[in-house]
Amino acid sequence: MNTTDQRTAAAVAQDNVDALGGVVSFERETSAPWLRGVDAKTTATQTTSKPTPTLVKHDAGKLPLDLLPFVAVEEVAAVLEFGARKYERHGWRNVDKRSRYFAATLRHLFAYVRGEDRDPESGLRHLAHAACSLLFLLEADVSGLGQDDRPRNP
Q: pLDDT by residue (tens digit) across 111-138?
């Protein structure tokens, strides 16, 4: 959106604010570089009154989930979808030993290091499979799922 469009949208928004007694909702298109050219529609709501109160946003203590790498998370989600079709949704929670996910992580990492980018069975990236298995291992560790069968004296 160029500067002229922004001013036009702002003028229309202000007209709507005046006409609706202080509340207006408008949509604008945005394009975020981390979405690699995907246009997303966002809805912005503006509440005004005279005088305009100071707005306070209480974000302290909230996780900054917006810092997650969206494309990588989508790759992992594709692996999760493949696993849900092959086995069952959330079946990974029924792990008997955590070392199974550690071993799976290593298998996918070794395949990647050897130059194989994609898993031959799923067609998905080995790194996404490895990240998924590592997330399973982390969840099992944090939540106490499965047996912690790490060797005690490696």
A: 999 999 999 999 999 999 999 999 999 9
Surface-to-core class of residue 67, CB atoms within 10 Å of its CB (0-12 exposed, 13-18 middle, 19+ buried):
exposed
pLDDT tens digits, residue range 53-72? 778 777 888 999 999 999 99
pTM for the model stands at 0.62
pLDDT category of residue 50 using cuts at 50, 70 and 90: low
Please state the domain count of the chain.
2
Closest CA to 104 of 129, 68, 86: 129
Determine the angle formed by the axes of helices 126-143 and 99-113, rounding to 10 degrees: 160
Q: List the domain range (segments joined by +) for residue 41.
A: 3-47
Please give the full DSSP string across 29-66, using - where no structure is assigned: EEE-GGGTT-EEEEEEEEE--SSPPPP----TT---GG
Q: Is residue 17 one of the residues assigned to a domain? A: yes
Domain match, 39 and 103 both:
no
